[in-house]
Amino acid sequence: MPEKSEVGYSKTYEITVTRDMVNKFAEVTGDFNPIHVDEEYAKKTKFGRCIAHGILIGGFFSRALVETWGEGIYLGQDLKFTNPVFIGDTVVVSVTLTGLRTEKKIGTVETLARRKSNNDICVKGQAIIMMSPPHP
Question: pTM for this structure?
């Protein structure tokens, strides 16, 4: 297995999405789209129930990056939303170092969120991070 600072290093985390998370995200961002917060409305959509904000799931990548590589600076993130995440779903978030500019400590990281119950990819993308040097 590669070391944390080597291309190929990968780490996964499991996070269960709760109603409380979705409500707090709506409050913080002001995104009260009824597909996220109104069960009666959501029942009438193609999803049949409320879905989590895609950016909430994308935010789990930030958490995974910090838990994997510690301090650092997020320089960019692209995201593609491919399947909904429902309240109560457990999401398996993985981050994999796919490139490294050693001289500048700039890492390219594949970011992936899958629904644990069926392995569907829900959110995928790529992050660019400035990796922090180890503390003495």
Answer: 0.90
